[in-house]
Amino acid sequence: MTFRHKRTILLVPHTYRAGNIAAAARxxxxxxxxxxxxxxxxxxxxxPVEEEEALRAxxxxxxxxxxxxxxxxxxxxxxxxxxxxxxxxxxxxxxxxLGINLGHVGFLAEWEQESLDEAIGRVIDRSYRIxxxxxxxxxxxxxxxxxxxxxxxxNEASIENVNRTKVVDATLEVDxxxxxxxxxxxxxxxxxxxxxxxxxxxxGPVMWPEVEALLVVPNNAHALFTKPLVVSxxxxxxxELEPTTGDANVVLDGFRMLSMPPGSRxxxxxxxxxxxxxxxDEHPFTDRLVHKFHLPVSGWRGPATK
Length: 306
What we know:
Blueprint: E1 8-13, H1 18-33, E2 37-42, H2 53-56, E3 59-62, E4 73-78, H3 80-93, E5 97-101, E6 111-112, H4 116-125, E7 129-133, E8 136-141, E9 147-153, E10 156-161, E11 168-174, E12 177-184, E13 186-190, H5 198-201, E14 214-219, E15 229-231, E16 237-241, E17 248-252, E18 256-260, E19 265-270, E20 275-279, H6 285-293
Parallel strand pairs: 1-2, 1-4, 2-3, 4-5, 5-6
Antiparallel strand pairs: 7-20, 8-9, 8-19, 10-13, 10-17, 11-12, 11-16, 13-14, 14-15, 16-19, 17-18
């Protein structure tokens, strides 16, 4: 693959809203005017893109492991789902990823749509910093220890029951020792980044991104000891399905899936490679939490000053 520019950005927009397409065109115009090459991810249904001249002329690249090859960073315009898909291409090539929220909550995005021009200006000037976000690696094994599949996640690995009319019988294990066996709808193993997503909705705690730990959240488990667990980032967390139970799926970040048959096990460890996350400001995670979840803080006075 040959690239025409020394600096190249992979642009990944959510393409199903007119406002998103206009924002993508604006970003492409600003980057191109600064002499930066823009590569557009071809996501299949690209009809709306063809209506924007600034996007129609861009180099296209198919979805796949080479999508972000040679890029300076991946620029995501959309919500959390779009960000997670784009982060996969950035992770494979070990390049940074920057999200601008065009969705609803957009917890993973760095800035909002109204700050698009300033954000692009920061990219052009390389006026940003990069922090590393912990990931998880997973391997799926059958009852004899043969590998059935592997993968990684930025947010979580969600073991989900296929037959929702029955529970799936599972045993939770930490560091090669059993913790508890229970019937459940599933089990989530999350990173700190994913603690504000599915794991939070399932009753798990919020973990600050600086915390290095694995979060384990049984999902609708029928047992006494089914509280969320926060374990060491050096631990191996495993979930085994009983041989007589039903099928499950292992869903990674909500869109990559492995079939998990009865008697198999999933092993989860800290990921070998973090996601490189573009930061444009110094606002703490606390402010993001309050802003995104609209938390009431009107009574806060702060520390007394003399």
